[in-house]
Design brief:
The complex is a heterodimer of chains A (178) and B (129). In chain A, 71% of the residues lie in helices and 0% in strands. By secondary structure, chain A is an all-alpha fold. The radius of gyration of chain A is 18 Å and the shape is globular. Chain B is α+β, with helices and mostly antiparallel strands. Chain B has a domain at 40-119: N-utilization substance G protein NusG, insert domain (mini-chromosome maintenance (MCM) complex, domain 2), CATH 2.60.320.10. The radius of gyration of chain B is 24 Å and the shape is elongated. The mean pLDDT of chain B is 85. The chains are: A mainly alpha (178), B alpha+beta (129). Chain A binds chain B through residues 56-59, 107, 110, 112-116, 118-119, 122-123, 126, 147-148, 150-152, 154-155, 158, 161-162, 165-166, 169-170, 172-173, 175-176, and chain B through 1-15, 17-19, 22-23, 25-26, 29-30, 32-34, 36.
């Protein structure tokens, strides 16, 4: 009778890279959670800077990994795992990833240079808040009055989408200078 | 898999198009969702246990409504209505301010008086509290 061989999981180079980038995103996520927000429901979402950089640099699949790892691990660290906050966070991440998947697919068809980080950022943050509102309507506040908030939240989304897009693009430009 | 960066600048042409489109959508959203529903046409003032009073909002006027605690004064001013005074302790009814849209509501619970505004096309079939 032979003893069963221990199972070794080998982390590939890609795994390590995704883990490192996700760790970076999680750190930003946690720091941002500690900052007070002027308005409930509105926050800059700076962790998505990492998602955008990863998207442009390594493609959609890596961005999806980083984004979802951040949502799960970030909520575990903050203590919001499986709470409504977590559900909304996940809804936002999933809908913005779906939007990015579409944009990423269609991007090569665009004339010229196509979308940069700013374009992706705006699309993602708008999809993010849209998905969150729909999930909030379905699960938590079953009343159409919720949609009165849509214009204000969307304004914040566009603004923060542009800001995080600009930050991402600056990082990408820096990365490619070296 | 390393992709080369799309653009040397901060924005590509497509980025600008996306930003402009987003900025065009925002005013649309404000006109579509931000409004508080239709203008109210009449207010129904109810003292518990009595027939509701229908007050048109077009005519500016003051009404004195008798409740169990005493008289509450209600003011109508060009399409809006509010509690001006009420013999209650917390004055929540007065702090509710002007009511002018369909389904707006204020009540003075101690004095058992409530105001419900309704418009031409009511947004709700019924409201329960």
């Amino acid at each position: 009778m032979s003893t069963p061989q221990p199972l070794h999981l080998h982390a590939s180079r890609d795994d390590r890279r995704i883990a490192a980038l996700a760790a970076l995103a999680i750190a930003i996520h946690v720091i941002e959670a500690a900052l007070p927000s002027p308005l409930p429901g509105i926050k800059p979402g700076l962790a998505n800077v990492i998602t955008l950089v990863v998207l442009v640099q390594y493609g959609w699949a890596d961005a999806a990994w980083v984004s979802l790892l951040r949502v799960f691990a970030g909520s575990l660290l903050i203590g919001s795992f499986m709470t409504p906050t977590f559900a909304l966070s996940l809804a936002g991440a999933c809908s913005s990833l779906m939007m990015l998947a579409l944009a990423w697919r269609l991007n090569p068809l665009l004339p010229g240079q196509g979308l940069g980080a700013v374009g992706f950022g705006v699309l993602a943050s708008m999809a993010h808040i849209g998905g969150q509102l729909i999930i909030a309507r379905l699960l938590f506040i079953p009343h159409d009055g919720l949609f009165h908030l849509l214009p204000v939240l969307m304004t914040a989304a566009v603004l923060f989408g542009i800001v995080s897009g600009i930050i991402s693009q600056s990082i990408l430009i820096k990365l490619h200078q070296d | 898999m390393i992709k080369t960066i799309n653009s040397p600048g901060l924005f590509t042409k497509a980025d600008i198009v996306i930003i402009c489109a987003a900025l065009l959508v925002l005013p649309l959203l404000y006109t579509q969702f931000w409004g508080n529903g239709s203008q109210g046409e009449i207010a129904r003032v109810q003292v518990a246990g009595h027939e509701p009073l229908q007050i048109p909002l077009q005519r500016s006027q003051r009404y004195t409504i008798k409740g169990p605690l005493g008289a509450s004064i209600i003011e109508v001013d060009e399409g809006r209505i509010r509690f001006v005074s009420s013999p209650c302790r917390n004055k929540l009814c007065i702090h509710s301010g002007w009511l002018q849209h369909d389904a707006d509501f204020a009540a003075c619970l101690p004095n058992l008086i409530s105001i419900t505004v309704s418009g031409r096309n009511p947004r709700f079939d019924s409201i329960n509290f």
